C-alpha cells in the first residue's frame, strides 16, 4: 500500500457554488489537492477511498443533482468542464467522477418520472457515489423473473468504481433479449467485486471484474419499466454520446495537465542543448515550436468539445421529445470530437518528452502516467469507427444507428 492510503484529503469547503464558474473553480481546488501526491498514488495499489470522499465533501458528486435536494443543479456542459479540470491533476479520479455523473444521470436516461424523482432525491441527499457493472463486450448478465422481483446473475469483466461505490448500476437481459438496468447498494449480498484491475494506466479507477450471484431487485426498480413493460423513447439512447463526451473531457484534461506540468519543468529544469547556442532551453526555437504546436492543437479540440457540449444541452433539456434526427446528428458531432480528442491527447502526452530532456524520464516526475492513462482508456472503442460515423454522414447523410458504442 502507498503511504497516501491514510492521508485524508480535507478542506473546509464553503457553501456550494451557485454558478457554473463557481463549480469549475471548485473543481480546480479539488485538482490542486489531488496533484500533491498524484505521482505517488499512481505507483500504488491503494483504493481511492479518500479521493472519492474528497469528491463528496466538495459537492462534485451532486453537481447534477436537483438544487431542492442540496445538489448543484448544473447541466452537462458544466459537468464536462468539471471532469476536465479534475483530470488535469489525476486522470483516474477524473474518470471516476465522469462515470459517476453518467450513472447518476441514468435514471433520467431510462427511468420513469417517478423513478427519476426518487433516485435523484436519494442520490443527492445521501451523496451516493455510483459505480457501474455495464460492459457490453461481455456476455449479458442473465435476468430472470420471480414474481414481483427480477434476479441478476452473471459476470462482468469491468466495473468502474466498484469497491469505492455506494451503489452500482447493474445491466442484464431478460430471456426475450430486453435489457434491464437497476441500481443496487454496492454491499448487496451476491455482488462480489474482484480486486484484479492491474493495467498500465488509469490505475485508481477501481475497474476490476465483478460477479453477480442472484442479486434480487423489485420489478418496480427496473428502470423505465411499467407493469413489467419497458417504455421506450429516443432519449434512452443518449447514454452513448453522453459518456463519449465524458471520455473526451478527461482525455483533454489529462493532456492539459501533461502540457502544463511539462511547461513548468521546461522553465525550471530543462537544460539548453550544449550545441544550441542558447543559455536557456525555453529560448531554443524547436522547444518553443513544440509548445506552440501542442497548445494550438489542444486549444482547438477544447473549443470543439465545448461547442458540442452546448449543442447537446438542448437535447438534454428536451429529453422527452428529442427526435431520432436530433440524436443522430449530435452523435456524429460527438464522434468527431472523440476522434480528435483521442489523437491530440496521445500526441501531447508523448511529444512533451521531446521538450523535457532525458532527466525528465525519472520515475519521480511521473510524466509517463499521462500517456499511460490516455493510451489505456482510448482503447475503449476503436477511434476509426468514430471517424467512420462522421464519414458516412458526410458522404451519404447516414446517421449512426444507436448501439452500445454509437
UniProtKB/TrEMBL annotation:
GO MF annotation, one: flavin adenine dinucleotide binding
Domain Acyl-CoA dehydrogenase/oxidase N-terminal: 41-117
Annotated Acyl-CoA dehydrogenase C-terminal domain residues: 246-380
Cross-referenced PANTHER family: ACYL-COA DEHYDROGENASE, ISOVALERYL-COA DEHYDROGENASE, MITOCHONDRIAL-RELATED
The protein's name: Monooxygenase
Record-linked Pfam families: Acyl-CoA_dh_2, Acyl-CoA_dh_N
BP GO annotations: L-leucine catabolic process
Swiss-Prot/TrEMBL keywords: Flavoprotein, Monooxygenase, Oxidoreductase
Highest rank taxon of the organism: Bacteria
